[in-house]
Amino acid sequence: MGAKGPLVLPALAAACCLAGGAALAQQRIVTVAPSLTEAVCALGYCERIVGTDRYSTGPGPVADLPKVGGLADASLERIAALRPDLVLLGPRTRLGERLAQLGIAVQTFNVRNHAEQKAMLLALGETLHASERAHALIARIERELDAAAARVPAHLRGRSVYVEIGLGPKAAGAASFIGETLARLGLVNIIGAEQGAFPLVNPEFIVRSSPDLIIGPAAMLSNLAQRPGWAQLPAVRRQQVCALDAERMALLERAGPRLGEAAHMLVDCLRAFP
Predict the structure, then answer these.
(1) Which domain, by its residues, includes 120?
(2) Which of 136, 180, 172, 142 has its CA nearest to residue 260?
(3) What confidence tens digit (pLDDT) does each residue in 56-113 have?
(4) pTM of the complete model
(5) Residue 152 belongs to a domain with what CATH number?
(6) How many domains would you assign to the chain?
């Protein structure tokens, strides 16, 4: 990789150049989060990616690239073996400092809401010398969110919604990027911003909140009526549940350049309700 001094690029403020003065045309990128993989590709540099996390299955040839592990267990050795000039990390890995000690430029992102998603795209745009593309991408996402909101049936606006994303149960709160997308669609999240972005919640709280709509993974929502007290929830009684398959759930949970696409996916489900 040549002689390089340690460099960690700020997460929300891009650096002007890479360690060792690596030219963009020679840049080799490893991404360790699907949303970051998609962001690099959306900015026009998919061909620069030489390795990803195991959950990055697209777009295009990304699925066939070497995998360096998961979001929390990425392998330092596998990453280093790919000779990257830049490694993009999500919040659940602690490899940043160790990679910097090897002279590899690192950017770490923790995207929890729409503002941080925009900041991530702008920072990557600066790093990749693609600021104009980043601004255009953000504008496109905003147009897609607006278009999705315009498609929500009037009778569903103002309805209360619960989004389950994990066992516990773990929910998407109003402060999360998922919660902010729901607000753009005119829905009211029963998990308030004060409860955090992705909190574990008491099932009794959900029963008391009595949501009109429920969204979550199909595998986890298949037995809603068997959960204590849940059979009487309006969403369960009226069968107004968006049970998403693995592909659609992955789309919902990624705070990358496909936020608008995720919003339209949710609206497609909502429009099927009477």
Answers:
(1) 8-130
(2) 142
(3) 998 988 999 999 999 889 999 999 999 999 999 998 778 999 999 999 999 999 999 9
(4) 0.89
(5) 3.40.50.1980
(6) 2
Are 252 and 265 within 8 A, CB to CB?
A: yes
> The dihedral of CA 200, 36, 86, 18: what is its sign?
negative
Q: Do the Cβ atoms of 79 and 68 come closer than 8 Å?
A: yes
Q: How far apart are CA 61 and CA 64, in angstroms?
A: 6
Give the pLDDT confidence of 125-159 residue by residue, as tens digits.
Answer: 999 999 999 999 999 999 999 999 999 999 999 99
Residue 96 φ then ψ, to 5°: -55, -50
Q: Dig out the tokens for 168 from the structure.
A: 């516990």
Q: How many alpha carbons lie under 13 Å from residue 256 in its C-beta half-sphere?
A: 23
DSSP string, 6-23: --EE-SSS--SS-GGG--
Query: How far apart are the two ends of the chain, measured CA to CA in Å?
Result: 59
Q: Is residue 122 part of a domain?
A: yes
CA dist., res. 204 & res. 7, Å (int):
48
DSSP symbol at 200: B
Domain boundary among the residues 130, 157, 177 is at 130
